[in-house]
């Protein structure tokens, strides 16, 4: 083998190695980009899930507040009824009202 043949062989091997190196580098770049895209998609999915969870929590809180308001409203109505009953009983005891809640003396007609 002559020196020129050896140089040609070495240069062709270098060229092959360079091409292979470029191919491997390109494949690595593509693989890296795919991984980055997958990570971004996963992050987006996680963010969406977190947003959905936050929305659900807000809805639950609103429902709890609504229930609490309804309970408060029921309590107020109950208190009002109790007060009216107590007032009616006291007035009945004093003789101002009859059992039906009407004032005595109003129902008779003058002749």
From TrEMBL:
Species for this entry: Petrolisthes manimaculis
Protein name per the record: Uncharacterized protein
Biased composition (Acidic residues): 33-65
Biased composition (Basic residues): 70-89
Region (Disordered): 1-111
Annotated Basic and acidic residues bias: 16-32, 90-111
């Amino acid at each position: 083998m002559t020196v020129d043949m050896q140089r040609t062989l070495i240069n062709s091997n270098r060229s092959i190695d360079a091409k292979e190196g470029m191919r491997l580098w390109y494949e690595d770049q593509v693989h890296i980009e795919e991984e980055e895209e997958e990570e971004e998609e996963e992050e987006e999915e996680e963010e969406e899930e977190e947003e959905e969870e936050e929305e659900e929590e807000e809805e639950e809180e609103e429902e709890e507040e609504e229930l609490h308001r309804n309970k408060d409203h029921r309590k107020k109505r109950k208190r009002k009824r109790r007060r009216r009953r107590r007032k009616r009983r006291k007035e009945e005891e004093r003789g101002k009202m009859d059992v039906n809640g009407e004032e005595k003396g109003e129902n008779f007609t003058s002749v």
